[in-house]
Amino acid sequence: MTSEARSPQTDRPVTTPKFEQVVTHEVELLEIAVNTDLPDAVFAPAFPVGSVIYDQKDRKHFEVTHDGTEQVYQPKSNGLQGTVFVYHLLWIASAVAYLFIRKGTI
């Protein structure tokens, strides 16, 4: 009979794990170059004409013109928004006036 310790699940001899030595290296990068053969235009794609772009640095909106340049965006009035507001204001005022006239308080 041997005096080796045996694992109860596998009935194999129990061996102690071997620890590997870990080596750490510190490296400081001084210069790196990636994709040096690509032109700078690849990293600055052109936006479609008429696009409105928000520049977070300047906190301004820009619009792309037909020649590809960007100019400060000036929103165009729709005209319909004010008309709809006045329409709703008139019918609400008319309804309130009708209710007052109906009760005879005016």
Describe this structure as you would to a colleague.
By secondary structure, the chain is of the alpha+beta class. Helices cover 23% and strands 11% of the residues. The chain has 1 helix and 3 strands, in the order E-E-E-H. A 3-stranded antiparallel beta sheet has the order 1-2-3, with no helix packed on it. A hairpin with a 4-residue loop joins strand 1 (52-55) and strand 2 (60-64). It is elongated, with a radius of gyration of 39 Å. The model has no long low-confidence stretch (mean pLDDT 81).
What labels would you give this structure?
1 helix; 23% helix; elongated; 11% strand; alpha+beta; 106 residues; three-stranded antiparallel sheet; 3 strands
Distance between the termini: 116 Å
| Share of β-strand residues | 5-15%
The major beta sheet can be summarized as:
3 strands, antiparallel
Overall mean pLDDT score?
A: 81
Whole-number radius of gyration?
A: 39 Å
Give the oligomeric state of the chains in this entry, treating copies of one chain as homo and distinct chains as hetero. single chain
- Please mark out the parts with pLDDT under 50 across 5 or more consecutive residues, or reply none: none
What is the number of helices?
Answer: 1
Structural class: alpha+beta
The total of beta strands comes to 3
Helix content: 10-25%
Which strands sit side by side, in order, in the main sheet? 1-2-3
Q: Helix and strand string, N-terminal first?
A: EEEH
Shape: elongated
